[in-house]
Amino acid sequence: MSKFRLNNGVALFPEKDCRMMAEMSAKGWHLVSFAAGGLLYRFEKGNPEDYQYVFYFEKTTSREMMSIFEAAGWQLVAGESGIQIFRAGREAIPIYSEPETKIEMLKKSKERFAIMTMFAGMLLLSSLISAIWVYPDSMIMKMVLLIVWSVFVFSSFPLVGLTRRIKDLRNQEGNR
What we know:
By secondary structure, this protein is of the alpha+beta class. The protein has two domains: 2-89, no CATH class; 99-174. Helices cover 53% and strands 21% of the residues. Helix 3 runs antiparallel to helix 4 (139-174). The longest helix is centred in the middle third of the chain and has 36 residues, at 99-134.
């Protein structure tokens, strides 16, 4: 039996999602995968466990990194499009022990979203120009414009969120 929970926006609120996953595990529902293209998390019924979860923002995890994570007590439980989720018991060594390592990870993810947002922005601009001047009465052009607008919005939210998280971590590092 499966349960599904909505992704709160990994780039904007990763701690919120990690808390929700830990609460689900305490109730016996354990994360097994993403669903609906990453919009949902899928949980399977099991025994209640006191797990912690963490996001790792890389397209793939090398064998070397996997060995390090496993030695520290972490297990890969889900991954999709540059976002991987690891789970461990409370006694595990943290994946991100220093803010700078987390900042570097977030910067890599931010670069991917920046490229995607720039591409979507250029596509949006050209679609808008076409919709206004070239095909002003075309319903298909209006649909294309709506789709491109959605891609732009959904790529810019993570970009903004990642930028905010990096800034917050740098401020925390500066207050040490």
